[in-house]
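As a warm-up, study this chain.
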Amino acid sequence: MKVMLVIGSVAGGGAERQWMLLARALLDAGHQVVLGTVQSVPTPELAQLVDRGLRWRVISGLLFRDGAGRPSRRALGLVSVIARLRWLISQEQPDVVYSALTITNGASWCATRLGYGDRLVWGIRGAVEPYPRFERAIEGVIGAMAKSVPLAIANAPQSVEMHRARGIHPRAWATVPNGFDTDGFRPDTAARAAARASWGAGDRPVVGCVARLTPVKEHPLLLRAFARVLESVPDALLVLAGGGAPAVEAALQKLAVDLGIAASVRFLGSVDDAAAVYAGLDVHVLASSTEGFPNAIGEAMATGVPCVGTNVGAVAYLMGDTGIVVPSGDESALAAGIARLLADPTERARLGSAARRRIESEFGRATAAARTLAAFTASL
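Now compare it with the structure written out below.
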C-alpha cells in the first residue's frame, strides 16, 4: 500500500511524534510512504527515514501561526498549500491520504476534491480541550467537510465523543491507540545518570512531568500536591519539562516561590530529548483535567517509569494496573499517590517493569501501524 501522511511539521508535539512512528512502522512492514509537511523543518529522525526510502515532500514553507500560537497573516497562503498538496497527490497517486490536526485536515479535504475524496482519512488527535482561536472560527466549516470524509481515526474513544459533540461526523470512525517507540524510550542507566547530574539531583527521589505548560495539564495543581509530598519526603525533587508561553511559566515559578518549594523544583522548558528526561525520573505524574491518549504516560511507561495520572481520557486504560490513577482535580489524592510510590522503591521497580512490558505487548509502533492499516482496509 502507498500511504501519504500529511501534517504541518514533524518537529513538535505528540501528533507529530505519532506520524513519524507510523511512517517508520509502515516502512518496516514494506509499504510505500510519502510524507507531506507544510513546514520544511528537517529532523535527524526524518533524515534516517528518507535514507530508508521515505519520500518527503514539502507542501509549503508558510506558517499558519506565529510563535505565540496566534493566527499569522501568512495563513492567507493556505490556498497555495491546498494547490500544492493537490498537485503532490496527483503526482504520487497514493492509495490513502492520511492527514492530522484540524487545519491540515481541512486543507487535505480541499486538496482531495474532484477525484481523490475516497482516499482521504482524517487523524483526530489531541486532548479534550478548546480549539485554538483560529480553528474555533472555522469549526462549522470543518464539521461540514467531515460529512464527506470516508474515515476518521481517533486515538481514544473520548476523542471520538468530543469531536462528535463538536459536530464532526465522518462516514466512519475508528479508534487506534497511540503507538510508542520502545527502542527510543527504554531504561537507560547512562542517560539516567546524566540527566540527574544536570538537575543536581544526586540520590534524591525525582518526580517529573513532561507536558506543555497549558491550563489543561494542571501544573498549579501538581505544584500544590508536590508541596504536600515534601512534608513526608523532604528531599524530593520535581522536574517540569515542557514549553509554553513565558507568562505561564513565570506564573508557575511564582507559585513555587509562594508555596515555599522553589528550591525543590526545576523548570526545564521545551526539551529536544524527552527520553533522557524520563530516564532520570523515579515517578512520572500527569495531573491533567482532560486528556485524549497521553503520549507522556506511554513514553514514561516505555522507559520503565511508574506513573501517577488523573482519571481522564484514556489514562486508566493506558496504565492498566501498572501505576496509580487518581480523581481529576483531587490535590490530596495526587499527593498521596506520588508519596506512596516514593516511599516504596521495591513497588516502584515492580510497577516500572510491568509498565514497560505493557507498552511492549499492547502499544508498540508495529501494533499501532497494523491497526491503522486494518482501519484503512475496512473503510476505504
